[in-house]
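haha ok so turns out i had the wrong file open the whole time. this is the CORRECT one, sorry everyone. sequence first:
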Amino acid sequence: MIPYGKQSISKSDIEAVKKVLKSDFITQGPKVPEFEKKVKNFVGSKYAFAMNSATSSLHIACLAIGLKKGDFLWTSSNSFVASANCGIYCGAKIDFVDIDPNSYNMDMKLLKEKLEIAKKNKKLPKVVIPVHMAGQSCDMKTMSALSKQYGFKIIEDASHGIGSKYNDKYVGGCQYSDITVFSFHPVKIITTGEGGVATTNSRALAKKIDILRTHGITKNKKDMINPSHGPWYFEQLELGFNYRMTDIHASLGINQMKSLKKFVTKRNSLARNYNNLLKALPLSTPEQSENTLSSFHLYIVRVDLKKLKNKKNKIFNLLRKKGIGVNVHYIPIHYHPFYQNLKFKKGYLPETEKYYEEALSLPIYPDLSFKDQKYIVNSLEEVLK
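then structure:
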């Protein structure tokens, strides 16, 4: 089976992890801050905080900003459920903005229209989470301008996007947002096994993120309320969580960072090859904005079902039988029973729903060969016919 995504692990990655396993520290040691430094230096942010997943990072980002019961969080439904669940964890109310039909990211025109209505109804969001779908950045400059106009905070869900660029700067530098979150799941651009990182340029947010990911505990004497009992002393100041990354995971991340640019270059090369090979087929290939560089975490085609007799599930199953691990990203969040219990119904987000009916993710990962790509495209052509 050719999977839709797959980690690329080198001998040096394995050696890096083995070295930590033989060291004095395998949980919280020197490798976590070293990994954080690598990430922040790469993306150009002032601070970076490693955690055990991007989901944890999104949750902590919301808490750090102060999202609470009664507040509103807006995001895209065209995403994994974590993009919305992080708001539910904080007691906030969730709403969705429909997507642009070309980029599959949040539609800025629709966002502005929705903000105008929300302002009149006094239900403006406290937080908006744009999702950089498949690794292509949202229009962050426009969103930043809207955030200043309407007073909301921005958390970039860049789970797909480390190594991506917007206006010639790496995503994660937080030029247009308060916090950015990355994922290092094995199918992402680089991996730590499981893991996430939150970046920010705000000292106040950095302090909050740091303490909340570690049970709400501080060992810094300047932050303590009571006199210290001795060198062993620490205090829990807030209700935090055990969301820390281990040195084992961080060591893999450190070594993987060496290959990040190479991985993004290869993914873009694979995407260009797909574009050429798929030209004659009745489907649309991903569009890229001129001011972005996508990391191409996913390569998504949209099948023109009006021109085809086969339904998408039949196409999907036939390709799977041929050993091609196609997938669908994503089932709209508002389709899930949990969110339908929150009164979301089919028909609420027309473009997201149309996209879901047509979208198919083809395999893309650094070790995918051009020969395999040719087989994938030939198989797809055969199935579509």
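The mean pLDDT is 97.
again sry for the mixup
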